Amino acid sequence: MPRGFRQLTEMATIPAVMNSYQCVAPDVRLGRDVKLSKFINLYGCEIGDETKIGAFVEIQKNATIGKRCKVSSHTFVCEGVVVEDNVFIGHGVTFINDIYPRATTAEGNLQTEADWRVERTLVRKGASIGSGTTVLAGITIGENAIVGAGSVVTKDVPPNSIVAGNPAKFLRLIDSTMEAAK
Fold it and tell me: Are 71 and 77 in contact, with CB atoms under 8 Å apart?
């Protein structure tokens, strides 16, 4: 287990009353001072120090959330997503990890994990993703980039840029310290 992380069973800072409203699997690795809201579903993932997870969030196995991040309510972080430190993820953001999603195989059987490949998605340090955004599989959102609310991110977002729309399009570079993450 990476240094600075501990199993949920060792963590004593979550009030007992909240545990009845949380589904946090024993294989979740939580950093120090992580804040977990009610009505969450976490399994097989890693959450960094001082990160806040909002209500109605699901974070799947093999996903990583960095230190000092904020994941707002109703967000879905699927397997294969890596979120670096100091990232803001707005309400109702959805990540996708399959480029060609199908329910069944060519033979008509329900797909299993062996029938498709997880595509990695990377959100670099200091990025902000607005509420209601969908991020397609295999995308990198650059360091300090800002994705406008309601966007559909279909291609990589350059560092220090602002994108928005469906599909998300480059609007401009971040040009002031007020807009850049510190």
Answer: yes
Q: Which two tokens stand for residue 149?
A: 């609310």
What is the DSSP secondary structure assignment for residue 114, as one 8-state letter?
G
Residue 44 — φ and ψ, nearest 5°? 60, 20
pLDDT digits (tens, 9 = 90+) for 21-79: 778 898 999 999 999 999 999 999 999 999 999 999 999 999 999 999 999 999 999 99
Q: Could you tell me the strand order of the sheet in which 70-71 lies?
A: 35-36, 52-53, 70-71, 88-89, 128-129, 146-147, 161-164, 169-173
Pairing of strands 58-59, 40-42: parallel
> Could you report the per-residue pLDDT of 132-159, keeping only the tens digit for each?
999 999 999 999 999 999 999 999 999 9
Q: Where are the domains of the chain?
A: 6-101+112-173
**Exposure on the CB side of residue 112, measured as CA atoms within 13 A:** 3
Span 6-101+112-173 CATH architecture? 3 Solenoid (2.160)
For 25, residues 6+ apart whose C-beta sits below 8 A from its C-beta are 8, 42, 43, 44
Give the predicted TM-score (pTM) of the model. Answer: 0.85
Cα–Cα distance for residue pair 79/171, rounded to 1 Å: 30
